[in-house]
Amino acid sequence: MPRLLPPAAWSPAARVAASLAILLYLATVIVPPLAGPAPSSDLAMRLVQPLRPLVGGLYLGHGYRFFAPDPGPGHAIRWTMRLPDGSSRSGILPDPDVDRPRLLYHRRFMIAEKIAGLVPPPDAPEEVRREGKPQWQPLVMGVAGQLLRRHGGVEVDLMMIEFDLPTPEDFLAGKSAPDGETPLGTFALSAPPASNRP
Q1: Which pLDDT tens digits describe the chain residue by residue (198 residues)?
Q2: CA-CA distances (angstroms) from residue 152 to 33, 81, 92, 100, 124?
Q3: Domain range annotation of the chain
Q4: Are 90 and 79 a contacting pair, CB within 8 Å?
Q5: CA separation for the pair 28, 35 (Å, rounded)
Q6: pTM greater than 0.70
């Protein structure tokens, strides 16, 4: 009959190291959603700072609360384009009627949400709007360039639209929540922005 070997015993130092590694990994999984999209507590924001390199390296910085029971407002980019013949064309990004397959809609939806997370609201102080502009304007210019190339436009005006979630009372009464609008600017393909409205 074969004899079973006794289980290998871990040294106290190995147990402490393994326990610390497990706790670090659990913190890396639990803290980022707590410090994710606003509103987030100051404590969660402080806890996530030293974990950011590990969170990024393991790709654990998911916005789980985006789909939570209170996900906050949604965003889209409304565009109006002037064509070479003088006519105009308009649309919205993402467009559920045009963006097929669903993955394309989702990607364009995430572009609008990314830009919305960077653009300060219209009532923000001028200094905040000015300091934030270098972060979001390159992304907006990329969207404007793609739209102009795709539709053969001369100039495009972009507007960020915010769709607030209706309250249960408004929903039952058939009312929709008011939309907020933030101008992003007017852009031309072969020239700098025609308007630098924040």
Answers
A1: 666 666 778 899 999 999 999 999 999 988 888 887 666 788 888 998 999 899 888 888 766 555 555 667 889 999 999 999 999 999 999 998 888 888 888 889 899 989 998 898 878 898 988 898 999 999 999 999 999 999 999 999 999 999 887 778 888 888 776 678 889 999 997 644 444 444
A2: 41, 9, 16, 21, 34
A3: 12-67, 74-195
A4: yes
A5: 11
A6: no
